[in-house]
Amino acid sequence: MATSALLRSARSSRGLSQRALAAAARIHQPRIAALESGTEDATVGRLTALLSKLGTQLTLIPSNVRPVWAAGADVQRALQLGNVRTAWREVIQLNDDLRSADPAICVALSVAAPAPTGDARFDALLAAVTDAVLSARRLPRPAWLDEDSRQLKGPWDVEQIPELQAAARKATPAAIKRHGIYLDQAVLQSV
Question: How many structural domains compose the chain?
């Protein structure tokens, strides 16, 4: 994943503006904008310094699976284009990827929180899927899963057909319900 997306995701998941990050890093805001847009490449040293101002650090792990924060960026992009179906496919791919990853890699891929997608339902859904996989595999859960912004205020029944909603609610794992979402986990399985 591009360093621009990593920096943007880390900054926005902390709720900071480009201006605030620039002030903390003692650089000009247009430089942050250039790094986040990809018009300027960040060196490892610059990226490490900026991430440290966000209270995080750069860690490289060998994996061909994208981390949760990157899946969140892909969901956000799909939603901005008005393509909810693609956003759902990204969530299903995330579920498949986390389930198939080595346990240590699965935890590492889940540590960094995704930036807000612009849709509270998908913010909660990304957390719910991550939570469900980690809980089912009895792996450690990162603290971001318990943030208020990852829980819906009211329930979201993903199943649209009223006659099937009761069955979907019964089939929803506790880790998904924690986020205010009702969905049969079978919906998340690739075909």
Answer: 2
